[in-house]
Recover the amino acids of this structure.
C-alpha cells in the first residue's frame, strides 16, 4: 500500500494522507484518505459521492428513500469468542489471528484505556452484524463498495454494548447497479438517549443485477411503496429476503370469514413464499366420494399464492387462476405452498402445490398457477367478532 502525504493545515492542525493499494502489476485495488484529528477537507468518500448522478428509474432499491432510518436502535457488541452471526461467521479471536496489523491492545487491558479496543477492521462488523437491514428486492447480489469510519470519542471497546442507528444518506445507479449509502451512528447503549456518537461509519452498498435475472429485476414494480401505503402498510409490506411476515399475514387471514370457517392456518410467510395448512374435517369438507372438495383445494392454493405475492408487492387481486387435480385429496391435513415465479410491473405470476399428509407420508395432489394484479384498493384489517345469536 502506498501513502501520499497531503499538506499540513497549520490553522486547525489537521493531518491527512491519500492512500491507495495496487496489485503487483500496478492495477489499482483501492483508493482512500486517512486523517488525524478533525479533518474538514473532503474525504475520498465525499469525492465519490459528488460524482454520483441522481437515479432515474430504480427497480431493486426502489423502496428506499434518503433520510430513511432503522426503526429502533440495534443494540450489539463484539466479544473475543462469540460468533458474529451469519453475515460475519467468525470470532474476533479468529480475526486477530489473521489480521495484517496485530496489536496487543486488541486483546489486552495493557493500553491507555485499560481494556481491549476494537480493531478498525471490526467496526463495520459491529455496525452491520445484527438487524434486518433495509428492504432490497431479490434476486440480487449485494456488493460492498465503500467504507469510511470516523472515531468521534475515542476507540470502541471489546465487550462493550452499543446502540447502532442506520440512516440512508444517498442513492445512485449505473447501467448495471443500484447503490445506496448509509450512515451508521454508534453510541454506548447506556447513553443512547443523550445521543453522543462514539463512532460514525458511512457505507455504500451496491446491488447488482445478476445476468440471469436482469430482465426480471427490471420488470419489478417501481411504485410498490405507494401501493403498500394506500393499502395496508402496517400489515402487508415487502421486506428483505427472508423477512418473517407470518404474524402479519395471520392477522390478515383472520379478517376473511371464509378463511376462518375453513380453518386456514398460516404456517410461514416470507417475501415471495407462503405455506398454509388445513386440518381435514370429514363432516363438512368432503365431496361425493369423501375426498377434499375441489372448491377448498382451489381456495387453499389461491390464498397461498396471493399471500406470497402480497408479501412482495402489497395488496393484490387475482386476475387468472387455474388448478390441476393430480390425485384424490385424501389426508389428515393439507399443506398449500405458494411461490412467486415472477413479479412484474403490472402482474405477479405465482405457482402453487397442495400436499396431502397422512400417516407420516406426503403426496402431491394438486398444482395451480395464479396471476395477480397489484392494487391500491385498501384492505380492511378489522377482525370480525362473533355475532350474537
Amino acid at each position: 500500500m502506498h501513502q501520499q502525504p497531503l499538506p499540513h493545515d497549520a490553522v486547525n492542525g489537521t493531518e491527512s494522507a491519500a492512500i491507495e493499494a495496487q496489485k503487483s502489476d500496478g492495477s489499482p485495488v483501492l483508493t482512500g484518505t486517512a486523517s488525524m484529528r478533525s479533518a474538514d477537507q473532503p474525504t475520498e468518500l465525499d469525492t465519490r459521492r459528488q460524482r454520483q448522478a441522481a437515479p432515474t428509474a430504480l427497480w431493486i432499491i426502489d423502496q428506499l428513500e434518503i433520510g430513511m432510518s432503522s426503526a429502533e436502535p440495534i443494540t450489539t457488541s463484539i466479544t473475543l469468542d462469540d460468533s458474529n452471526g451469519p453475515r460475519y461467521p467468525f470470532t474476533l479471536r479468529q480475526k486477530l489471528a489473521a489480521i495484517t496489523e496485530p496489536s496487543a491492545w486488541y486483546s489486552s487491558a495493557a493500553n491507555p484505556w485499560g481494556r481491549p479496543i476494537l480493531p478498525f477492521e471490526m467496526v463495520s462488523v459491529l455496525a452491520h452484524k445484527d438487524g434486518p437491514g433495509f428492504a432490497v428486492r431479490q434476486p440480487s447480489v449485494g456488493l460492498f463498495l465503500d467504507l469510511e469510519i470516523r472515531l468521534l470519542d475515542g476507540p470502541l471497546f471489546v465487550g462493550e454494548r452499543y446502540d447502532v442507528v442506520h440512516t440512508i444518506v444517498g442513492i445512485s445507479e449505473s447501467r448495471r447497479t443500484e447503490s445506496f449509502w448509509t450512515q451508521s451512528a454508534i453510541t454506548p447503549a447506556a447513553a443512547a438517549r443523550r445521543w453522543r456518537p462514539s463512532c460514525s461509519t458511512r457505507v455504500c452498498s451496491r446491488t447488482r443485477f445478476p445476468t440471469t435475472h436482469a430482465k426480471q429485476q427490471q420488470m419489478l414494480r417501481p411504485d410498490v411503496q405507494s401501493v403498500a401505503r394506500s393499502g395496508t402498510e402496517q400489515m402487508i409490506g415487502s421486506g428483505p429476503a427472508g423477512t418473517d411476515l407470518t404474524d402479519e399475514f395471520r392477522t390478515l387471514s383472520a379478517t376473511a370469514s371464509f378463511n376462518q370457517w375453513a380453518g386456514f392456518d398460516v404456517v410461514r410467510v416470507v417475501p415471495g413464499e407462503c405455506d398454509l395448512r388445513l386440518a381435514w374435517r370429514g363432516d363438512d369438507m368432503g365431496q361425493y366420494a369423501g375426498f377434499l372438495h375441489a372448491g377448498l383445494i382451489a381456495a387453499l392454493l389461491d390464498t397461498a399464492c396471493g399471500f406470497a405475492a402480497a408479501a412482495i408487492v402489497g395488496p393484490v387481486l387475482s386476475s387468472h387462476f387455474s388448478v390441476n387435480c393430480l390425485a384424490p385429496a385424501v389426508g389428515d391435513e393439507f399443506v398449500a405452498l405458494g411461490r412467486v415465479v415472477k413479479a412484474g410491473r403490472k402482474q405477479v405470476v405465482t405457482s402453487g402445490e397442495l400436499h396431502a399428509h397422512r400417516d407420516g407420508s406426503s403426496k402431491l395432489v394438486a398444482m395451480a398457477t395464479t396471476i395477480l394484479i397489484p392494487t391500491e384498493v385498501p384492505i380492511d384489517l378489522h377482525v370480525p367478532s362473533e355475532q350474537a345469536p
The helical segments are 44-51, 92-98, 123-128, 214-218, 224-230, 246-253, 257-262, 294-313. DSSP finds eight helices and 14 strands in the chain. The chain has three domains: 1-41, 54-217, 221-374. Residues 294-313 form the longest helix (20 residues).
